[in-house]
Write a structure and sequence with these properties.
9 helices, 9-stranded mixed beta sheet, alpha/beta, 19% strand
Amino acid sequence: MTAPEAAPAHPSPVRVLTVAGSDSGGGAGIQADLKTMLALGTHGMSVITAVTAQNSLGVQGAWELPVDAVRAQYRSVVDDIGVQAVKTGMLASPELVECVADLLAGTDAPVVVDPVGVSKHGDALLAATALDAVRTKLLPTATVATPNLDEVAQLTGIHVESEDGMRRAADAVLAYGPRWVVIKGGHLGHEASSSGTGLAGGSDEAVDLLTDGVQEHWLRAPRLDNRHTHGTGCTLASAIAAQLAKGQSVPEAVRAAKEYVTGAIAAGFALGGGIGPVDHGWRLSTPVGRGTDA
């Protein structure tokens, strides 16, 4: 009697690590990151920096983890499993920002820094005292930084009101050391159109700017009439990291991520009594927000 043949070994998957806070409502943070990484065909891993009590109405509480716990999680994953890209999100305090920046500086993989400052509901997720550490320690480690307009204002003091303002903001963020920056236009199109500042596309487009200070890529997508957009920033940064891990160039990765996020926003669904999440599974045969008839 012959022994059964061993099953063929599966190749190791593309591995992406998120270093961020937990969103108990499942729409943003670690939960959104891992869903995005899975949806884009990668193996997501996590270092939890903070725990939040959070739902569709806002953040009811937040508790950061000790620096030693964050460092131990990171070393545990990176030293054994290895990573092909890292994404950072909520880091909460100066001590955590500096710890994570030191860890990233010693990691040979692309880094996407989402400099999370406030939640979708306006709740502070980064201490004001941590801003200098973000500027001087964290941003220099970034392959790509992905600030929204509120985070641009926090970091640089520039309040963007036009596409020219996005260029100035990008230059100011690049001065802190990231190789590339995505300035996320967010609601800029609607405000510029209604105030007469002449933003191209007006309220019909969601416009982001990707640049390294030399190359300039304007990323435009239809502005969608859907208020359920919780988790868009986390999702975009994680999607960029997943695409970089798969070997795409920065412009390729950001374009693919923008396409994925646009689809996720279009499929965003109501959850609870406030702002619902984007649908990370919109490309699946049965997207999360649609359910089944069974």
